[in-house]
Write a structure and sequence with these properties.
Strand content: 15-25%
Radius of gyration: 36 Å
Largest sheet: 3 strands, antiparallel
Order of helices and strands: HHEEE
Shape: rod-shaped
Number of domains: 1
């Protein structure tokens, strides 16, 4: 390039900004990606754990409701005997998603035990068990 006064000057190109990661070694590159993946994995694990706890709570509630309603249905038929009361209780328990594992008549009171199976995480099946008693009001 020529100067206006006739002399010549060499044109040198200097970078206007230096790269920020020039000082880093190659072993440190990609560290943020690994950190982000680790944080994502932790979030997925906490989400799975939370869903498993929620599933257990819901199954426990379903077992409790099925046992209560089954005991009430059995108590309504308690005068018909043990077989009639437990058959009525088993019908209601089944309609509420439970499985009756125990039923007995104690005077006019009916005791019903119900279990509800649930899967908190794939491949793991657990059961929630609940017992309820129903009968006439005693004063």
């Amino acid at each position: 390039m020529r100067r206006p006064d006739g002399g010549s000057q060499r044109c040198r190109h200097r970078p206007t900004a230096e790269r920020l990661d020039d000082d880093r070694s190659d072993a440190q590159r990609g560290g943020a990606t690994v950190l982000l993946l680790a944080i994502g994995l932790v979030l997925v694990l906490f989400g799975t754990f939370g869903a498993a706890v929620a599933a257990a709570g819901m199954a426990d509630q379903r077992a409790l409701v099925a046992a209560d309603l089954g005991a009430l249905a059995g108590a309504a038929r308690a005068l018909g005997g043990d077989t009639t009361a437990c058959a009525s209780a088993a019908d209601i328990v089944g309609r509420n998603g439970g499985r009756m594992v125990g039923c007995r008549l104690d005077g006019l009171d009916v005791l019903v035990t119900v279990e509800v199976a649930f899967t908190p995480i794939p491949g793991l099946t657990r059961t929630a068990v609940s017992t309820a008693r129903a009968g006439p009001l005693r004063g």
